[in-house]
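Please fill in the sequence for the structure shown.

STRUCTURE ENCODING:
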């Protein structure tokens, strides 16, 4: 399949590293409004053509897919342009920022018989797939509670040539840490639980009192999955970098903390295993390679995209209700079914 990268920032470099390993995929074009990024792309990808805008690219290329690696506010426009030019579409998270856009894009994808695929790459992390295996195998028993903690010492910086702090601009990013790291944690929670939460309680704030006061650098969420609570702590104001995922069931507990997996059964010993998680590796080759292979399978089984789009829509729905909860001091806010927006 021949494709194009839309936006050639740091996310695109991670995607490109995985594409290079795939024999059945070739990147033929790059779109980026910044001249120096286009020049860099031309040096990094032999034979690639670069363009300042997506419409100019489609005047010169007939492609099988586009991979959108630009900031969130541009996603909907690029998805639409890709579909109307009969391309399958991958898109970085969050897929789009407005719930009302999902139905129109889904109907457009159906009409042109093309796939929209949200890049929910954490589902493909080998270490996090161990959590899924612990649930599916029955090792945990009945899932009782879960806790994610994502601590960072600041937001991820974009490229120097184009607004490196765009993640703190609500007009570009759509929010702060809740919509950035929160998206990963929320789709992962829905994926692991195979359910949509019924309600959310959330508190957000700006602990560092930095210049980016219009977006939050901390978000503390509790999701109610019908009596089972899922706690998610997100922090861009930490003095350490930490990735922590824990599931507690009626029979056992499994915890991933950075590069250590701990598991235990009731009244049993704690087992520790050191693993390579790639949490701190921006390339995450194994994650993206597995995700892209899944994307390719989805292009020949278009019905699969419905569940993927619903997962993405549900994630945004939870985020919106979490912001509503935060405005009410952390009050519980009901989450309606995502299918209502389809």
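FILLED IN BY: designer on duty
SEQUENCE:
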């Amino acid at each position: 399949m021949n494709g194009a990268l839309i936006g050639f920032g740091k996310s695109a470099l991670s995607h490109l590293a995985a594409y290079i390993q795939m024999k059945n995929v070739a990147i033929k074009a790059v779109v980026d409004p910044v001249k120096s990024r286009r020049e860099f792309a031309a040096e990094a990808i032999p034979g690639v053509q670069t363009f300042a805008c997506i419409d100019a690219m489609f005047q010169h290329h007939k492609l099988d897919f586009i991979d959108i690696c630009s900031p969130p506010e541009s996603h909907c426009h690029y998805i639409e342009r890709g579909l109307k030019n009969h391309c399958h579409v991958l898109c970085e998270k969050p897929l789009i920022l407005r719930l009302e856009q999902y139905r129109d894009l889904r109907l457009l994808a159906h009409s042109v018989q093309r796939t929209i695929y949200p890049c929910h790459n954490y589902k493909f992390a080998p270490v996090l797939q161990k959590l899924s295996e612990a649930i599916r195998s029955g090792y945990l028993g009945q899932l009782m509670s879960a806790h994610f903690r994502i601590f960072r010492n600041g937001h991820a910086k974009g490229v120097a040539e184009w607004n490196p702090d765009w993640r703190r601009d609500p007009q570009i990013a759509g929010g702060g840490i809740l919509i950035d790291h929160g998206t990963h944690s929320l789709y992962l929670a829905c994926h692991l639980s195979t359910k949509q939460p019924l309600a959310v309680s959330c508190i957000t704030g700006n602990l560092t009192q930095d210049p980016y006061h219009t977006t939050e650098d901390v978000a503390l969420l509790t999701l109610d999955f019908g009596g089972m609570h899922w706690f998610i702590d997100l922090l861009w104001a930490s003095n350490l970098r930490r990735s922590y995922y824990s599931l507690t069931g009626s029979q056992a507990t499994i915890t991933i903390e950075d590069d250590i997996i701990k598991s235990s059964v009731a009244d049993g010993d704690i087992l520790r295993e050191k693993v390579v998680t790639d949490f701190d590796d921006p390339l995450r080759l194994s994650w993206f390679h597995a995700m892209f292979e899944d994307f390719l399978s989805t292009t020949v089984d278009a019905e699969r995209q419905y569940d993927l789009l619903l997962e993405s829509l549900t994630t945004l729905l939870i985020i919106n209700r979490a912001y509503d909860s935060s405005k009410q001091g952390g009050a519980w806010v009901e989450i309606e079914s995502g299918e209502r927006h389809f």
